[in-house]
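Handout, tutorial session.
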Amino acid sequence: MTAVGGYAGNTSTYGIRGTYIGYRSGFTSNGNYNTYVGWSSGVLNTGSSNAVVGDNAMSSSGAGSANAIFGQAAGANITSGSYNVAIGASALPSVTS
């Protein structure tokens, strides 16, 4: 795991090869191969293989995997959706499959 920023990857204990850049990015992320860039991005995600860029992007998500999320607050509430692409501020705010 690579973590840069206060509390980045703070409680990530099971994920491998994750990259977390930004305050609280990947805070409780336990999935594998995730990349989170931005303040509080991927905070609650437990899925794997997500690429997330943007402040609060995918911040309240659950077990979504293989998502490409780019933009401030994009994909903020993806609970279990996988293989989604969101581009732009607040794009794809909520999805479950």
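The second record follows below. Compare its token runs with those of the first.
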Amino acid sequence: MAVQYVGLPSAQRSDFVAVVFNSFGQSQGEDEGKLISSLTEQLLTRTPKEDLHAFCAVDSGTLIAAVIFSRIRFGNDPRIVHLLSPMAVAPDRQRQGV
């Protein structure tokens, strides 16, 4: 089955956070994995829906990559700006073009 790129289904939020934890935990250490996965959970639960865009890559029903775009507001500035962070790929799927 080919990798599918989809918006984040709410049922897979824990898998989304786990991919972030595993990716950052393996590359930067467990403390960093905990920190970034906690930030991810907060973004997913506290950011207004209209300011959050979360996407994932799914292969054979398994979430293998995660990315969040969250809107940044600057006072009265009318521009719409999004921050790409975090972005993570499961350690065993990195360097494979996901």
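Points raised in discussion: The mean pLDDT is 93.
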